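Structure first, sequence second, as always.
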């Protein structure tokens, strides 16, 4: 919030920016009671104090108070453990708050496991770089069902308890406004935060990993036509399994095949000889056909078995795929399919070969 001094300093410059709008708006607010009689009123200092509770990394805004680990344990068990687990370890309601940090991390100020691929967990304590954030967040947002209900001393206490669970402070510790800055110096990931990177690090997006908060407008030789594209960066391809298998199988949307690297993707056409999975999904055959389970239509395994003896199986199946039909398997008709003949051919050949799976 601007205090009046800052307001004068900033607005005095008459900048032709969004700031001048903010200045105009704040002037309008200050006089709204006079300009619109009967509508609203000026906020009282007490109301502003109740709202203006942020605690900053330099601890500006931190109210004086103190709380012990022991008291914190009582608060925790009564008001927090039901959702976060007795030791902050639960991921039932939210991801775990505690765990994954080591004594060594407290020395280095960087949580080693954040870069250890064999340790997939990401707890709050692993990521936290400012103890003020933990304090502030608990006071403003927790317990989830009753935010802002804790006393200042209990916020100190329960923060101390979480720090104790993480091995940052001893069991007999009493956290207060006097020693919280020293605690910051022991926080496992205090050096682990940076703003010197792009929104999504990696050169794919911008050519450089430039922080998105330090952009500048192009003034000369600017690209004339912006090229808007959307693609998955290489390093994120495998982050959530194969998206192609997670999309609905009806309708035109198809997820990209993300288990392969982009470079390897064109080779997919070549391995259609094996299982034409992509074709089956692309043409929505899998909306009605399972690999080995009867759905709306017969499974591909059943179809393959039925025509295993037929020499002209591939030709027959190709024409049936395109034309559709009814009565061979039951009374549900298969609508005619509009797909390229070469795709129908590839599927038919695979069925004629026995619909083998990899
Ligand atoms: C009713 C369930 C519930 C209770 C009780 C509860 N929490 Fe939470 N807590 C949550 C949920 C849900 C989130 C995530 C909220 C969000 O991201 O919007 C959360 C988030 C947090 C976070 C932030 C974690 C992060 O990495 O962002 C902290 C710290 C926290 N809770 C501490 C506490 C403390 C301390 C108490 C007790 C005073 C408490 N919680 C009680 C449900 C609960
Ligand atoms: C709307 C549901 C539906 C869709 C979509 C669908 N099928 Fe069918 N399919 C069926 C039904 C039902 C049958 C059984 C028809 C019958 O009894 O004659 C069938 C039968 C078949 C047969 C066996 C034909 C025969 O004569 O034995 C093949 C092969 C086949 N489908 C392949 C495909 C392929 C390949 C696709 C995608 C291009 C596809 N189907 C899309 C419902 C569907």
């Amino acid at each position: 919030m601007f205090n009046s001094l800052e307001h004068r300093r900033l607005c005095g410059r008459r900048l032709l920016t969004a700031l001048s709008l903010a200045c105009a708006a704040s002037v309008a607010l200050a006089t709204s009671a006079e300009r619109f009689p009967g509508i609203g009123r000026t906020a009282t200092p007490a109301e502003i104090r109740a709202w203006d509770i942020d605690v900053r990394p330099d601890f500006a805004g931190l109210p004086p108070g103190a709380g012990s680990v022991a008291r914190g344990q009582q608060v925790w068990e009564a008001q927090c453990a039901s959702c976060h687990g007795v030791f902050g370890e639960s991921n039932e309601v939210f991801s775990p708050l505690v765990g994954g940090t080591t004594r060594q991390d407290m020395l280095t100020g960087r949580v080693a496991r954040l870069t250890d691929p064999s340790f997939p967990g990401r707890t709050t304590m692993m990521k936290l770089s400012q103890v003020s954030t933990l304090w502030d967040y608990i006071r403003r947002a927790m317990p989830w069902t009753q935010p802002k209900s804790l006393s200042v001393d209990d916020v100190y206490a329960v923060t101390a308890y979480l720090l104790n669970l993480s091995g940052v402070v001893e069991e007999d510790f009493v956290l207060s406004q006097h020693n919280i800055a020293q605690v910051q110096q022991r926080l496992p990931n205090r050096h682990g935060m940076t703003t010197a990177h792009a929104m999504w690090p990696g050169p794919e997006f911008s050519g450089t990993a430039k922080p998105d908060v330090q952009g500048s407008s192009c003034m000369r030789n600017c690209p004339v036509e912006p090229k808007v594209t959307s693609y998955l960066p290489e390093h994120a391809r495998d982050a959530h399994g194969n998206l192609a298998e997670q999309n609905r199988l009806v309708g035109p949307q198809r997820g990209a095949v993300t288990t392969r690297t982009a470079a390897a993707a064109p080779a997919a056409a070549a391995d259609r000889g094996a299982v034409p999975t992509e074709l089956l999904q692309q043409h929505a055959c899998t909306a009605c056909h399972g690999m080995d389970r009867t759905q709306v239509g017969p499974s591909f395994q059943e179809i393959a078995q039925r025509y295993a003896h037929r020499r002209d199986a591939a030709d027959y199946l190709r024409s049936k795929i395109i034309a559709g039909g009814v009565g061979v398997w039951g009374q549900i008709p298969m609508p005619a399919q509009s797909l390229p003949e070469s795709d129908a051919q590839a599927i038919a050949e695979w069925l004629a070969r026995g619909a083998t799976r990899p």
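Margin note: The pocket of heme C (ligand 2) is lined by residues 283-285, 287-289, 296-298, 303, 317, 320-321, 325-330, 332, 334-335, 337, 339, 347, 351 (CB under 6 Å).
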